[in-house]
Amino acid sequence: MLAAALCASAEPYKIILPTSPDDEGAMVRLVNYDSGATIDSVLAGPQSAVFTGSIDEPVLARIMMEGRRNPVFILESGTISFSQASPGAFGTMLNDQLKEFGDKAGELGQQFNAAGSAEERQAIYARYQALGDSLLNANSDNALGYYAFLNNDLSSMSIDELNALLERYPQFAAMNKVKNIAETAVRRQATQPGGKFIDFEITNDGVTKRLSDYVGKGKYVLVDFWASWCGPCMRQLPVLKDIYNKWHDSGLEVLGVAVWDQPEDTRRAITEHELPWDCIINAGNIPTDLYGISGIPCIILFGPDGTIISRDKQGDELKADVDAAMASARQ
Q: What value does the mean pLDDT of the chain take?
């Protein structure tokens, strides 16, 4: 009787994802966006991949095919379709609302990029925030509201800011992504300037390296958490080289820590960009978890005793922090 009642409460869904003949036979996975768990998997046909099933309540989902990730959508009852001509799912109530939000946000993004002044950009951004707030408040009890909640750029918030937002929307506090973001914010706060370094060790090709092999040894050390595929990381390399060339002879060390990257790609980038400093390779997410790093590059300046002097600065701001630290070391 219980099984029958559960089946009766579940609502059927059908998802139609367009594919090409080149995709035929590829594994296509339907994934819960919050937990990362695979809900279902099918093989792609020459024209489409089709999922059918039932669900108790709508959840955020994503379809993945051979490493390609389709936009986040809402798995809900009804027929959910995708178009190769435009992003986003459509055909069901919440997905149509999500697509409408995405279209309006895209229009605001174009206006923001074309704006001629900072005041105009600020006004457009305020309209974007209001659009998101409206979506969240109207759907705070469903998966579309959770999407809008995540759209608040939570990863850039301090733990106090995040807790304040969760006081308004406590229903999202138990979600996996929110809990992970909160844990990251706590670790990021603990590793702000004034805090001490947290050690880690990485073994690659049988060689073990520790952060403490470099940091806390009586020298200023600038540590760059980076990856070869990361465009912003590549753009900071000339900045790091300038800093290295200016201050290395005065005792500054620079250390790369390659995260979220394949070792062969890291080594190729080191050679291509002729990086003169040492690098800890294949660190994965070990240091990013410890330091609450949600985006790279993350560049941290450690003092001679391992105290954090500067964090999350780039370009001229990073140069200024290093100049100030090295100038004080000369006094």
A: 94
